[in-house]
TrEMBL record:
Family of this protein: Belongs to the multicopper oxidase family.
GO terms for biological process, alphabetical: lignin catabolic process
This protein's name: Laccase
Cofactor(s) listed: Cu cation
Amino acid sequence: MEKLSMVTSLLCAITVAVLAVAVVGGEAAVVEHTFVVHEMNATHLCNTTKIYVVNGQFPGPTVDVTEGDTVVVHVINKLPFGLTIHWHGVRQMRSCWADGAGFVTECPIPPGNKHTYRFNVTGQVGTLWWHAHVTCLRATINGAFIIRPRDGKYPFPTPAKDVPIIIGEWWELDLIELDRRMMDGNFDDNPLSATINGKLGDLSNCSRMVEESFILDVKHGESYLLRVINTALFSEYYFRVAGHTFTVVGADGNYLTPFKTDMVTVAPGEAIDVIMVADAPPAHYHMIALANQPPEPDPQIPVFTSRGLVRYAGATANNNGLPVPMPIMPNQHNTMPSYYFHANLTGLAHPERHRVPMHVDERLFVTLGLGSICRGQNTTCKRRRSPETIVVATMNNVSFAHPKTTALLERYYDGTSKGVYTEDFPIRPPRPFNYTNRDLIPPGPLEEALEPTFKATKLKRFKYNTSVEIIFQSTTLMQSDSNPMHLHGYDVFLLAQGLGNFNAKRDVRKFNYHNPQLRNTVQVPRGGWAAIRFVTDNPGMWYLHCHFEFHIIMGMATAFIVEDGPTPETSLPPPPPEFKRCGNNADQTTMVASLLCTVSVAVLAVAAVGGEAGVVEHTFVVHEMNVTHLCNTTKIFVVNGQLPGPTVDVTEGDTVVVHVVNKIPHGLTIHWHGVRQLRSCWADGAGFITECPIPPGSERTYRFNVTDQVGTLWWHAHVTCLRSTINGAFIIRPRDGKYPFPTPVKDVPIIIGEWWELDLVELDRRMRDGNFDDNPLSATINGKLGDLSNCSGIVEESFVLDVKHGESYLLRVINTAFFSEYYFKVAGHTFTVVGVDGNYLTPFKTDMVTVAPGEAIDVLMVADAPPAHYHMIALANQPPEPDPQIPEYISRGLVRYTGADANNNGLPVPMPIMPNQHNTMPSYYFHANLTGLMHPKHRRVPMHVDERIFIILGLGTICRGRNTTCKRQRSLETIEVATMNNVSFTHPNTTALLERYYDGTPEGVYTEDFPVRPPRPYNYTNPALIPPGPLEEVLEPTFKATKLKRFKYNTSVEIIFQSSTLLMSDSNPMHLHGYDVFLLAQGLGNFNAKRDIRKFNYHNPQLRNTILVPRGGWAAVRFITDNPGMWYLHCHFEFHIIMGMATAFIVEDGPTPETSLPPPPPEFKRCDAS
């Protein structure tokens, strides 16, 4: 696949305006920038990812000022979510309002809004940086902030050039989704690579496309000031250049005593200034940035590396034919070089340096570690990283609860802190212990006693001019990370660092009072401590936190309140005119959901009512499309730019022709769900059953007739999980235009689905590997998530049905979801159910519809309520515990009457009262109450039965890989499968069953011995079988095989589907391709032939293509094998299909050409031709 280049042109170019630049030794200037924050696509590692950037740059623009200047930055937010910009390390003397800490000093700038930051840079020289300070956006929204000396003089030889070296990480996962996942306790995601100045480097490649490296061009003999900044979310980095040494001269905007080294260690948040002299023989030399991490038993991450190049002027392009030298890097898990690097740094003693406060007014001892709290609203739960808990990061066993709707600084300034924060941050841990005991890292009873943790917004208040000493003590509670602690608004004296537990009597003697470093980010070593002092001379609200992003999100933070001093010059001024209070930021804009292009569906010929059958022709272009929901843009697969896809609208008797053009990088087929396909099995579109998938870049034409069916069906992709977004309604109208119910004014498809942020092909892969832990984020109605879903105050769009009072509407309710049945209601309205699966029903009144995956239910709704607005709800229903639980999926739409005013006359919009999510009985009673409509053309139930099949639906386990023996009961040696009569269906993946049957070459592909009964009878619905244990182990001997069942033409078949509780108690929507079947009865418990056959409805049963076998129950069906071909039978829960709850029925040809399967049509492409 041809690699896409990065989009570098922007719709709008913003020039950085420097209104006045001071000459050396001259007056201070105003340095002004405009930052336009927007989305941009960037291609790395064969994948195009949407990232968030400033002015089209990654990293962002450098802010270059002189000490004493005033900085003015206008930030224009063109993202679909709020953000702030923090000026990392800028002291913000008396300008706390401009610090840019989200929800600490200000609320985020809403989408479409702008904010101006204005502050002075005083008493600082060197390298700082700026970055977004809401969610994980700082990964790409960042840049250098350089402060030059006012007199132009450095305490080291003036370099020929200074170069920012911004070390970061490349994430393909959307950063907002990353933040959401971490907020939910999921810390398994990792970046794909390190970066140097936004370049991944030539050690990264995909399909032999090598990534670009950062190149530093140098001249022999000249010196270069490298400003090394770590913007990464997750890791410290080692940085080296082969054949060169560095002289460390500064850190965090302060000078250091020059220190020679061949390697720099830089933690997240730190900025290290080094001089590198280009004194090696002129050639090329590699530079390396390597992430460092603690060794096991700490959780392990991949090796992140970026390789750049130092290129001497005059060196040949091929480096004189010699290999380019590589620096020798330490082991990734060796954290000691970091400790020694930081411990060797000292501040530069110079006349204007700050003095260490020798007197201490307040001492704090702060332990840094992990703990766990109960999920949700629970107050009691099982500890030790159980599913009932979420892991949090703590300071003195308190995990900081970040505000979400207000800013701490505003509340402090206004004196309205009640209910927002308290000022009782603990100044010591609740109990002393051996903080660096390595036995505490793996979860167990030892640390459980030490980690009592709670979430709270606890701050610490200091009086102005207080001398503060803090000992930061790393602990090994569940981890042994280092901790780069960043204090906003201050430089602090780093008096000492050490390994092990801090001991005041011993370690205070190590304190450096003469020339300590001044730092804004203090690296607390792994399994060690750091001692700092500072004087509270800057009033305001100052955030203190670890600069590992996961630790911030987990709660390793607090804030220091510094009170005003005795004079106006020592007090926090009021907010400046450009500051926007949180109340002014409350109006969140809605997410843009309009798409760039629409492809028209062409209907070449539509038969007039009562006229001749027509040909209805469509072209389906299947392609990728980016869609934004819940603050995240996801690549999805769609037809003609539509979600759901185009409706196929035909009249009974028409011929349908659909040209499918596959422009996605995966093969697919289109299945016409419920279309009987009489003698057109070649067009059924069941992947690897009736045809091989249409390859990427290829086309396929489906041609078939629609005979003896009226009502609602649907179509969808039938390979992997693509049907989630590749689907649409298939409507069949009566040839004479007459319905057996009052003709509606309008018919409206109501397509209920699910919104997945996880790539659907990856979801399929994960399920095939036995991972069923992924879930969608929301239900959808006609592709809309609804206004109950929101992110960062951005409310999702709802589906709106406009109605007129007194008119009737035919709602065609289709469930396209993978995982769940759905309850559907409209407040204040009732439904009359009139059809299902393309067949009429006896009208049945209800206020709620239940629709299982694969089903299509037709209901009439009369708009007879008082004209107003009324909510509709689609709510997923699932079995209760002990079955595995999933989140509550819900989508809310709106019925809007003509004439009702926009605000619903000031009244609340009525909500329908929904059943409990775990109450499955309404579904059972809804389905059990449906009956077929008696009419002159209705088909008769076959009273004679030729073949009876009894099928148990359940789960089982098989050995992973090629093993033949393994430990059962959901062990790591097994993979869970779904079964029919203890056989889990093996789907072909290189050939199609129909071809092999038609050609008479089934050998090695399938057998025809599908079992017609289970291997042994038992109490199928015993709830004790749900949790794994020895009882069901005896009953679940399972094997994978492609076992089919062959029927002669015109055979009368009866099937009893029996749900079992083997490892689960789901319902099972069983779908048979190519047939409508008579649903004679459904019941709860175990089917008993003597008792339950009396319940069979031979008079007016439903005709269905999808039969919902109730949870803990059974369903009985009959049909005549009058349609020759290969017909797939499977559960329509996607995970059950992938797990193997399927088979296929072979129906032989009848005695005449009219009862036989014709040869494949000319447009059919055989597997070897695909």
